[in-house]
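quick q for whoever's on today - can somebody do inverse folding on this one?? i tried earlier but teh output was garbage lol. tokens:
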């Protein structure tokens, strides 16, 4: 099994490298390695999916796909590769040494080594096995990766081909499932479940960081600017760190005898002593109290509406599809920018083809890179180049995107609150949003947001005009972004000021064309502050994060240029520190654990994805049921039937499905009815519903995540065959109830 895994990664890297070599860019060493790894994984996963549909899922398509891609990449340049092979290792070593001395290569290699080590430590401990229990070491991973495990297991153990959504039966799989499909491929080669999720996330995120650094370097031509841009892309945050004093002071109330927490509300004569005392608690005791920088609930926040969380832990780590999205967007932006500046059509064809793959891995990334390329080429009025880019992008990527956007768009009266989208919402989360239908808005109701469904263009325009003419909207929005990004947005304004002031900085700004580079990213910012693109309005951050990393490059350039010497260097350092302090505090909270004094610490049980009971249930399900058997479950996120055994369920955790825009009222009523059993008198719809949803088994589990009222006693009284019973779980075979 180890040999199979090793062969897979060697083939993937080799295939990606030869495909990258087909693009005649002056690749640097680390850049070539990262691009080869990313393209190898993406291309082989797509081809493996196609082969699996024809051949069946397993180790064979997992290994054959990268092997075929390797042959495909070598064939057009067979003579060149034979000549390279003939030269031998000595010439290869000389070439590597020569390449490592190129401008930017030493710094790029250092970034690759440093980020590789740091990311290995962070990502490979996302899931781990502790005493036979599969544990998530970060709360955000526990809540997000259970769904990734379920999709991966559905391919490996549930034979889910052609892909369907096994978390809600009878629905199409519009979720970007290719990252999880690739994890299932690794499992088919012998990798365990947690390694199949951890390792690709580490490698793809590592590739993304390297490629983003090289994008920033190619745009600004400065290695230290690229380094700062990467630092902001990973740790950039807002002003949440101002809660630091309050946290430390509150901590003293738990550690210092006679110290009153009321002393923390204002600066008094006791403040210097309090400040000196709580420094001793850094970092293991201080930064874990509920404050803005760790995203936990707080009754008295230091600032209102802090919604922008540290990128590494909020996006890079838990959102596996985002890793692929950020990596491909960085790589394709690099190709597009080089094509834009050098008018190279071959780069555009490669970028358009690569962008099409994003529709399977990260639909937001597809929209972002489509907009970026369209903007740059349109501004240059390069019409033939625009065609070379858009044709492969639309022909190869648009069908999947149309399938994604053609899905349900929520409903107004949903069981867990409205998830109808899209909405128009000027200012995004800068104010308390009261969403209205067109009828409510036209009737004169106070509306912070407007549902697009049912609203005419005239009504939408009326709402937009009415919103933007209010001075309070502009003030709230400006204050919101100042609190959430600190001086980042102020520095962005300063870039525009530098453009107008005669200076060497202005000349360099124009020579690098930084304003034209970042313009489409600010268009993303505008869109995300006008349109709610997801059922959960906070999910607009998935689009805004692309704005932030794109805007971080010119902002980093400005910091480095203006803070190049003397006292300005000190100010620049303080500015950078203010931008990343919130992120550093968040990393401290995530990596070192929560306080054991004022909060109950996270335990293995709380962050367990699969303990002994869950594994026993999964083994029984795999042993005694067919892959297509449908289960009725209560919606526990780490529920073992789906997360471990890969079986389809009627309705999984509605927190996921609600955020996907699924209409949930009808299926939730059906699930509630089935779980309640039959009344003592009158008609009963249980048998009919079980038959309608093709339910073979019903599971009773701990927890109440979907707020379902269950009646275990009724099912016990039916003397149904028991599939498995543990201390907290019991599963009945209910096919005998279909006719009742």
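ok took a stab at it. sequence:
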């Amino acid at each position: 099994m180890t040999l199979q895994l090793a062969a897979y990664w060697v083939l993937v890297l080799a295939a990606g490298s030869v495909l990258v070599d087909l693009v005649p860019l002056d690749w640097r060493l680390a850049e070539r390695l990262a691009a080869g790894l990313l393209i190898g994984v993406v291309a082989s996963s797509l081809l493996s999916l196609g082969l699996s549909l024809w051949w069946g899922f397993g180790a064979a398509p997992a290994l054959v796909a990268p092997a075929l891609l390797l042959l495909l990449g070598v064939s057009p340049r067979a003579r060149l590769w034979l000549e390279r092979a003939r030269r031998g290792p000595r010439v290869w070593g000389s070439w590597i040494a020569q390449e490592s001395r190129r401008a930017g290569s030493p710094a790029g290699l250092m970034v690759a080594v440093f980020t590789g080590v740091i990311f290995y430590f962070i990502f490979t401990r996302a899931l781990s096995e502790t005493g036979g229990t599969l544990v998530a070491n970060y709360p955000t991973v526990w809540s997000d990766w259970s769904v990734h495990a379920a999709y991966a297991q559905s391919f490996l153990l549930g034979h889910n081909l052609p892909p369907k959504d096994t978390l809600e039966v009878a629905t199409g799989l519009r979720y970007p499932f290719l990252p999880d499909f690739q994890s299932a491929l690794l499992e088919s080669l012998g990798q365990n479940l947690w390694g199949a999720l951890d390792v690709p996330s580490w490698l793809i995120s590592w590739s993304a960081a390297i490629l983003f650094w090289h994008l920033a370097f190619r745009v600004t031509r400065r290695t230290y600017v690229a380094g700062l841009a990467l630092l902001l892309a990973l740790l950039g945050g807002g002003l949440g760190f101002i809660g630091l004093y309050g946290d430390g002071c509150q901590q003293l109330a738990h550690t210092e005898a006679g110290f009153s927490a009321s002393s923390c509300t204002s600066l008094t004569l006791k403040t210097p002593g309090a400040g000196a005392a709580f420094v001793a608690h850094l970092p293991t005791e201080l930064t874990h109290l509920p404050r803005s920088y760790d995203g936990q609930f707080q009754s008295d926040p230091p600032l209102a509406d802090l919604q922008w969380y540290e990128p590494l832990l909020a996006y890079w780590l838990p959102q596996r599809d985002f890793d692929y999205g950020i990596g491909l967007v960085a790589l394709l932006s690099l190709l597009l920018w080089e094509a834009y500046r050098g008018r190279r059509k071959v780069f555009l064809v490669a970028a358009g083809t690569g962008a099409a793959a994003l529709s399977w891995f990260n639909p937001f990334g597809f929209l972002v890179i489509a907009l970026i390329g369209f903007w740059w080429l349109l501004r240059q009025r390069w019409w033939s180049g625009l065609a070379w880019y858009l044709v492969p992008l639309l022909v190869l990527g648009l069908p999947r995107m149309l399938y994604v956007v053609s899905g349900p768009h929520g409903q107004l009266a949903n069981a867990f609150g409205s998830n109808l989208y899209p909405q128009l919402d000027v200012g995004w989360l800068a104010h308390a949003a009261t969403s209205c239908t067109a009828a409510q808005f036209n009737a004169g109701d106070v509306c912070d947001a407007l549902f697009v469904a049912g609203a005419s263009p005239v009504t939408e325009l009326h709402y937009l005009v009415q919103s933007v003419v209010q001075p309070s909207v502009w003030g709230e929005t400006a204050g919101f972004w100042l609190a959430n990004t600190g001086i980042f947005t102020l520095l962005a304004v300063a870039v525009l000021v530098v453009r107008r002031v005669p200076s060497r900085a202005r000349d360099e700004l124009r020579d690098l064309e930084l304003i034209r580079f970042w313009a489409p990213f600010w268009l993303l910012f505008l869109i995300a502050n006008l349109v709610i693109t997801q059922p959960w309005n906070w999910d607009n951050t998935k689009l805004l994060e692309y704005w932030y990393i794109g805007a971080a490059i010119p902002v980093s350039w400005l910091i480095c240029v203006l803070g190049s010497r003397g006292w300005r260097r000190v100010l620049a350092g303080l500015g950078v520190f203010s931008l990343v302090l919130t992120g550093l505090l968040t990393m401290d909270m995530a990596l070192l654990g929560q306080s054991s004094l004022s909060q109950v610490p996270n335990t293995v049980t709380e962050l367990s994805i699969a303990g002994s009971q869950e594994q026993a249930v999964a083994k029984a399900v795999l042993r005694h049921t067919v892959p297509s058997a449908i289960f009725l479950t209560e919606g526990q996120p780490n529920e073992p039937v789906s997360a471990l055994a890969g079986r389809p369920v009627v309705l999984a955790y509605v927190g996921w499905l609600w955020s996907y825009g699924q209409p949930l009222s009808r299926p939730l009523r059906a699930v509630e009815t089935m779980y309640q059993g039959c009344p003592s008198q009158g008609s009963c719809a249980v048998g009919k519903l079980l038959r309608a949803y093709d339910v073979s088994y019903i599971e009773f589990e701990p927890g109440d995540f979907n707020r379902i009222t269950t009646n275990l006693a009724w099912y016990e009284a039916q003397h149904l065959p028991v599939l498995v019973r543990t201390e907290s779980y019991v599963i009945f075979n209910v096919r005998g109830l279909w006719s009742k």
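fwiw Residues 279-293, 594-605 have pLDDT under 50 and may be disordered. also The first strand starts at residue 127 and ends at 130. so keep that in mind when u check it
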